[in-house]
Amino acid sequence: MWWLVLAVRLCLCDPLITSKHEDDLKNVDNTTGYNIASVLLREAINTSADPCEDFFEFSCGNWIATHPIPSHETEYTQSTNVSYKVHDKMREIFESKEVFGSKSMNALKAMYNRCMDKVELNRVGAKALLDSIRGYGVWPILDGDDKWNKESYDLTALLIQVFEIRCVDVFIKISVSPDERNVSRRLIQRRCVIIHYSEGNVLNFGAAGDD
Fold first, then answer.
1. Do residues 15 and 6 make contact, with C-beta atoms less than 8 angstroms apart?
2. Which residues lie across from 14 on neighbouring strands?
3. Which residue ranges does the record assign to the Peptidase M13 N-terminal domain (predicted)?
């Protein structure tokens, strides 16, 4: 049950509650966020269901009934719903005629309009994509086997180029994240990308139910 998992995590984390946090907790039911969250939770509940018989239907039944999963999605959650609303708002902003005082916003609008310019995209075609692929060297699928030269192929140089251009981690991924035991600190984490990929994907490939 989700509430049991949450309770265990809270107990294990042993959060530090300050006097300010205690004051915030006392007044939390008066905040806008609390009121919005309570409305969303109430709207998801199916009060006609008996929680002792079917707790899932009781807690989520109305949400499922009023939010059918779209044909192009495998699930539809509150996060999905919020994402759609954010995307719609972003599209509204990007397609508006308004000129913003922010240089970054105007640059984003220009980039969006370039990406959505179907006339220009059809004129250019796949040239930009093919040029990008050829920028990594000769690919027999595009250029034919006769142009492939095994002796001039440099895997190290290619991997460096992939990282510099595409920011794709090769072999080892370095990242910075909060220390779960002391959130005032930051940790430099190192992870073997290939092993991680193998465990998460390759070992499960072909399992029962996979297409």
1. no
2. none
3. 51-189
Q: Residue 84 in contact with residue 70, Cβ under 8 Å?
A: no
Of 163, 171, 166, nearest to 194 by C-alpha is 171
Q: Strands 172-179, 182-192: parallel, antiparallel or unpaired by DSSP?
A: antiparallel
- Range picked from 24-38, 82-96, 129-143 for highest mean pLDDT: 82-96
In a domain, 19, yes or no: no
In a domain, 117, yes or no: no
Domain membership flag for residue 129: no
Nearest to 90 by CA among 68, 70, 71, 113: 113
Nearest-angstrom CA–CA distance, 100 and 109: 10
∠ Cα 41 39 68 (to 5°):
60
What's the number of domains the chain is made of?
1
Structure tokens, 189? 């984490």
Task: For residue 72, give Cα distances in angstroms to 69, 76, 84, 91, 192.
Answer: 8, 10, 13, 20, 33
Identify the domain containing residue 91 by its residue range: 31-96
- When the pLDDT of each residue in the chain is averaged and rounded to a whole number, the result is 78
Gap between the Cα atoms of 36 and 44, Å rounded: 13
- Backbone φ and ψ for 192, nearest 5 degrees, come out as -80, 110
Share above pLDDT 90 across residues of the chain, in percent, rounded to a whole number: 23
Is residue 176 included in any domain, yes or no?
A: no
Query: What span, in angstroms and rounded, lies between the C-alpha atoms of 94 and 117?
Result: 13
Q: At 128, give phi and psi (nearest 5°).
A: -60, -40
